[in-house]
Design a protein that fits this description.
This protein is of the alpha/beta class. It has one domain: Rossmann fold (3-Layer(aba) Sandwich). It contains ten helices and nine strands. The strands form two sheets. A seven-stranded mixed sheet has the order 3-2-1-4-5-9-8, sandwiched between helices. It has a two-stranded antiparallel sheet with strand order 6-7. A hairpin with a 2-residue loop joins strand 6 and strand 7. The protein is globular.
Length: 263
């Protein structure tokens, strides 16, 4: 059965129809690096990774895409594992690794179902570019974070990025979306506050959950993490938000958190 006609009831847990189509669209993977070539957020999260992942070890990239974070880590003699729902993405990771004669292991998997990774078996995990927000439902996002906590060694770190729900207040269309989302959330309990649907690169009704600061912090703490570093992002996502004490929970474009599994 082709992925286009796969019944909704058979979609993997937490995976929307749009995410399934996104993962199976070859052009999303082949055009990914060029499409995001000028995205400055990638520079910011690379700096965070370099600052905190200082000693080589086993690192898992959850939603690794084309390997933009894994390639530099492999060069630094980390032992990288890329996990993604898209075979097309993983194939590009393999091609990049082969060109540089690097070893990067790859697994196609749903981030909600990571039971195949052993307890306390990895040193670091990264989940970037709001990948956590691509998982539908608070329960399923919690399952992913629980898995990450379980498979990290004591003292292990998670570097994770999400988008800010309230940042939409600063855009006319964003304000309209917030009003609609509040109404949908009030009258349709299948919709969560922060659930967003939009057409994206040929994929209709792409799903993304945006977080409030309180929600993001609570999700990390609920899974057992201690937040080591908290980076509110400025509007162009080129660095830390200035004067974040001044309504930073509203003004931040999003957050990059470094969370630790206590020893």
């Amino acid at each position: 059965m082709s992925h286009e006609t796969r019944p909704h009831r058979r979609l993997p847990r937490g995976v929307t129809r749009s995410l399934w189509e996104y993962a199976h669209a070859k052009h999303i993977a082949t055009e990914y690096d060029e499409y995001f070539a000028d995205n400055r957020l990638f520079d910011v999260d690379a700096q965070v990774i370099a600052r905190h992942l200082t000693s080589p070890g086993v690192v898992v990239d959850l939603g690794c895409g084309t390997g933009r974070a894994l390639i530099p880590l492999a060069r630094r003699e980390f032992s990288p594992l890329g996990v993604d729902l898209s075979n097309h993405m993983l194939r590009i990771v393999a091609e990049k690794a082969a060109r540089e004669r690097l070893t990067i292991h790859r697994i196609r998997a749903n981030l909600v179902d990571l039971g195949f990774l052993r307890d306390a078996s990895i040193d670091y995990a990264i989940c970037l570019f709001s990948t956590l927000g691509m998982i539908r439902s608070r329960e399923n996002r919690g399952r992913t974070l629980d898995h990450v906590f379980r498979m990290l060694k004591p003292g292990g770190l998670l570097v994770i990025h999400v988008h800010n729900y309230w940042f939409n207040l600063f855009d006319r269309f964003g304000r309209r979306w917030i009003v609609r989302n509040l109404l949908d959330w009030t009258f349709n309990r299948q919709i969560e506050l922060g659930d967003k649907f939009f057409d994206y690169r040929g994929v209709p009704k792409m799903f993304l959950h945006t977080f409030t600061q309180r929600e993001f912090r609570k999700a990390l703490r609920r899974s057992g993490f201690r937040i080591r570093e908290w980076t509110p992002l400025n509007v162009p996502r080129t660095g830390r938000l200035a004067a974040s004490w001044f309504f930073g929970s509203l003004r931040a474009n999003g957050w990059i958190a470094v969370a630790e599994k206590k020893r």
